[in-house]
Design a protein that fits this description.
With 314 residues, this protein is α/β, with parallel strands linked by helices. It contains nine helices and 13 strands. The chain has a single domain, classed as Rossmann fold, CATH 3.40.50.720. Bound molecules: nicotinamide-adenine-dinucleotide and uridine-5'-diphosphate.
Length: 314
């Protein structure tokens, strides 16, 4: 049983992580400024004596006595991270410094939720951890991509300079219950549009690819990484290597919801990666981890979540 800080714990992934850590008997402090997260995501935990919610912005310092820190705080959807791009960069960079200083002060192990976006629009496919990426430093996605890259740099510098016990994971597109309805990412957009009978909005021609990981699989990988032997820092890719085009995803969502929605095409946003798929050999070898939930299975659970969340609002 440990005392664990989860920053961004009221967000999509963070809320699943908090629930799992509590279930395993740990004490969890969730620090979140509720920019994209919500109290609803943690409402089932709020009365648990092992759970504590702190409304806190990680661009400010924090001192809490903990054994482990999962640093997830950062808006992850393009519409949200581009809303205040300077704040996004501050959250990644200042947030990483504050959490690493905390880890130093209280001698905690710290895990960084990095991203496949560090590979940018990759010209190596699929992406292994050794690939350094192809990132535009001055585009509209840069606040997120470069912010996360700088955070990785800080993690490795604190590790080399201050012997901080770090773990870095690179998360590939993850989906599931507790995504916000207005999140703007492709899986939640398509499902909400299909359930409401609205047009399904494909950006570009729909041939761009992503590889989608169900959230339960990701949480398992995250915890295995945190519990892995000291000295194994990563970075390690965590994602589902099965690749789909956005057109295939749209058709799947229409079929699984039985929706009458039509597909419409909208302009492709600037610097939108054309392909993305993780190499997960390192996670398989070091964490004995690989995803087990298929896209169909995961989409069914996510559709059921959005169905009940839409119904409970009407
Ligand atoms: P999310 O937007 O649902 O969660 C992010 C959480 O961080 C929210 O609760 C938000 O309120 C909080 N937050 C944002 N800025 C903050 C700040 N300055 N101080 C305190 N809290 C702050 O997104 P998510 O999908 O759950 O992503 C969680 C983490 O995983 C992020 O760091 C993201 O970059 C990373 N990640 C996610 C994916 C994915 O596909 N979901 C992929 C790669 C990386
Ligand atoms: N996308 C889309 N329609 C939407 C939302 C997103 O076609 O309503 C596309 C988007 O342009 C990108 C892919 O789906 O090519 C994944 O987008 P998302 O924002 O979910 O994740 P990211 O681009 O960060 O991987």
């Amino acid at each position: 049983m440990k005392k664990i800080l989860v920053t961004g714990g009221a967000g999509f992934i963070g809320s699943h992580l908090c629930a799992r850590l509590i279930k395993e008997g740990n004490d969890v402090i969730c620090a979140d400024n509720l920019f994209t997260g919500s109290k609803k995501n943690i409402e089932k935990l709020i009365d648990n004596r092992r759970f504590e919610f702190l409304r806190h912005d990680i661009t400010k310092e924090l001192l809490v006595q903990v054994d482990q820190i999962y640093n997830l705080a950062c808006p992850a959807s393009p519409i949200h991270y581009q809303y205040d791009s300077i704040k996004t960069m501050r959250t990644s960079v200042l947030g990483a410094i504050h959490m690493l200083e905390l880890a130093k002060d209280v001698k905690a192990r710290i895990l960084q939720a990095s991203t496949s976006e560090v590979y940018g629009n990759p010209n190596v496919h699929p992406q292994p951890e050794e690939y350094w990426g192809n990132v535009n430093p001055i585009g509209i996605r840069s606040c997120y991509d470069e912010g996360k890259r700088a955070a990785e740099t800080l993690f490795f510098d604190y590790h080399r300079q201050n012997a901080i016990d770090i773990k870095v994971i690179r998360i590939f597109n993850t989906y599931g219950p507790n995504m916000a309805r207005n999140d703007g990412r492709v899986v939640s957009n398509f499902i909400v549009q299909a359930l409401k009978g609205d047009n399904i909005t494909i950006y570009g021609d729909g041939t761009q690819t992503r590889s989608f990981c169900y959230v339960d699989d990701l949480i398992e990988g995250m915890i295995r990484m945190m519990e892995s032997p000291e000295g194994f820092t990563g970075p390690v890719n965590l994602g589902n290597p099965t690749e789909f085009t956005m057109l295939e995803l749209a058709k799947k969502v229409i079929a699984l919801t039985g929706s009458k929605s039509k597909i419409v095409y909208k302009p492709l946003p600037q610097d939108d990666p054309t392909q993305r798929k993780p190499v997960i050999d390192l996670a398989k070898k070091m964490l004995a981890w690989e995803p087990s939930v298929s896209l169909d299975e995961g989409l069914k659970k996510t559709i059921a979540y959005f169905e009940s969340s839409i119904t409970s609002d009407t």
